[in-house]
Amino acid sequence: MGGGMSGGETWRSLAELTANRLRLIQADLADEPAESRRAHLNDEVKAALEKVPLAERNDFLDAVEERFPAWEGGRVVSGAGGGTMLSPTDMAEFNDPGFLIRQLVKVAASMSEEQRREAAERLAAAGIAPAGAGEIPAESLARAKAAMQIPADGNADGGRMLEAGALLAEQVILLDTLVWKIWRQIAPDSSHRGRGSVGPTLASYVQGGGETGRGQVAEELERFRQLTAAVLSSVGKVGGTVYTMMARMSPHNIESISKTEKKWNESVEIAAWKKYKELAGKLDQATVESEVMRAVSQTVEEIVRPRGR
User: Fold this and answer.
1) Are residues 36 and 84 in the same domain?
2) Which residues touch 79 (CB under 8 Å, ≥6 apart)?
3) What are the tens digits of pLDDT across the range 111-122?
């Protein structure tokens, strides 16, 4: 490398001088192929760069481009050797996001954890990659993969995993709210009540701080699962309950009752009709709904009641 700039010579005056020399070269080599002409121009710029301090080289190149726009320009990449001139083709590649991503992927395998973390932070700061919340512990990642039926050695995209978790959480929280609301309507006097709800419990656990542990989340989700399963199972009781109520008014049942309750001078047919009207008069919408709710509530209580009680 040359001895640098001397006396009152500055990179600005050198840029002016270099731009003039480039114009002369451009004129002298007007009949030469474009690649040959470009090579001579770049050689002239490289020779001038030897006289410019490394910290000022990009400013120098900007000044040359401003004074001689016909030169396609380049940039200086600092390195152990002091600096390397990039060709216009190189500059085009380094301005291509796709090229830069491919290069990053190539070197990713050889990057240290610190380098990976720094790269992620800088990409997040530039708004290119979403800011992360720290690495996922290996044990938690393995459990999440197993829960989502992903093979242990299968790939798991962190962003998509969080997105899937968010979708699941949304649905669970909506269903949790709905099923407890339905249960309160079915059995307003039941002692089986939720001590909390899935949403706030999940929020407290994910935010950290130690107030809510994984066990509490699992317990709340288990209560939600039990109640949901019990309410769904109790639907099968509705048909049986309605049938029992209607069976009281079956011809055979009414005739049997009438034979024992009729007066000595009363026919079975007349006694049966009176008994039918008596039973039917008690069968209104409120009564049917009450009996159905009672049957559902009893079934749910039997399912969710802790064993041994």
Assistant:
1) yes
2) none
3) 887 888 788 777
